[in-house]
Amino acid sequence: MKNTLSLMWRMKWIAVATLFIEALILLPAYFVFYRFGEKSLAVNLAVTPVGSTEHVTLLIDAISNNPAFVYGILVLLLSLPLLFLSKIALAAGTMASAQDGELKLSVWLSHAGCNLFPALGLFLRWILVPVIFCGITAALVTMTDGTVKKLMWALLVIAWLFSLSWFSFALNFTVAREKKALIRGFGVLRKNINRFAVTAAIFVVIGGAIKLMDFSYFSANSHADTGVGFAIVIALLLGLATRLLVLFWQTSHVEGWRKVSS
Question: What is the pTM of this model?
């Protein structure tokens, strides 16, 4: 893990750049929400836990009584395909930059552009993996209860992380322009099962802590007029922490791939 953390630290600016690019893509939707909607509604939504009963109630009320909110939702939906493609491209660019060691913004963006379609093709082939693994596990969740149900939920998380790790190792072969990336990615995963276990455990623990901080903050301020600006700052900090965690996942898989391939 020493090499992983060292590489992650040298690439820490990628987390900031990724957050900036993704925020830029979503900026039109945020602008419509805030500029043409009710500012009090924007603040209340910003400081209310996503998915909570209060949040759902606010959304229903906004859709019913605020046309500008509906327009904002439409702009957001139109932005999602671009956001997805940018995530695929930037993930591929991060893998390629980590492999060749050229840690420059221009090189990273160049790698992202060059590897977009190969990475997208890999994603479309890989998507059957989580559909099968997670689908079977999800079916088991619905058929059990009590302690067994909790175990099935844990197994569902493991199945998702296993599938994601498979994709991450395969992506290394894709950006290196090597064939049979998906098959060879599984081979690398099988040889790095201990690395996967440690990486997944760290990912779950820290990711859970970030989500808990997110929920705790918005729960504590759900009835306080903290202002949309302050809420955005907190959201950006939590978003940056999440992207640093994703960068740790990516660099760990590059190091695991490099160890097996060398």
Answer: 0.84
